[in-house]
Every structure is written in structure tokens, then in C-alpha cells.
Amino acid sequence: MARVVVIGLPGDDQLYLADIDAGTVLPMQPPVSGPLAAANDLRNAGGTIVKDVNMAVAVSSSEQAFSGVFDG
Q1: Structurally, how many domains does the chain consist of?
Q2: pTM, 2 dp
Q3: E strands in 1-72
């Protein structure tokens, strides 16, 4: 099973494709139609979309993540 995640961040119109097994994160073209395009439209309107991911946390640096910081 490939472990690939599409990521969108608040204030950033760009979508990113993270391939966990390859260790890469690359910008991707937002889709113009289909379910992923609809999800992207919802997130651009302020929504949060979660599917098949059970944890995602934005931190300000990798140092924070590695030190265990989890500010809400």
C-alpha cells in the first residue's frame, strides 16, 4: 500500500503531495474537477477535510516536533 497524503495549509493556496515511503513532499497542481477539487474548494472556504489520517498537527519547526511540543 502506498502511503501518500495530500496536504493543504491555511493561507496557502498550494497543495502538496507527501510520499511517506519515498520521503518526499512536492507541490502539486490543484485539481480542476472531481472529489479532490471539491475538497480543495471546501478547505479554501475555511473547511477542514480529514480522510484516512488519524493525526495531523502543524508546528512552527521540526525542532518543536522532535522535542514533543504540542501547543493547541
Answers
A1: 1
A2: 0.83
A3: 4-8, 15-19, 24-28
Q: Which residue has the cell 496557502?
A: 12
**What is Dmax (Cα atoms) for the chain?**
40
In a domain, 46, yes or no: yes
Could you tell me if residue 72 is inside a domain?
no
Range of the domain at 19: 4-67
Q: What is the pLDDT along the chain (72 residues), one digit of tens a residue?
A: 679 999 999 999 999 999 999 999 999 999 999 999 999 999 999 999 999 999 888 888 888 888 887 765
CA distance 56 to 3: 14
Residues 63 and 68: their CA atoms lie apart, in Å, by 9
Residue 41 falls inside a structural domain: yes
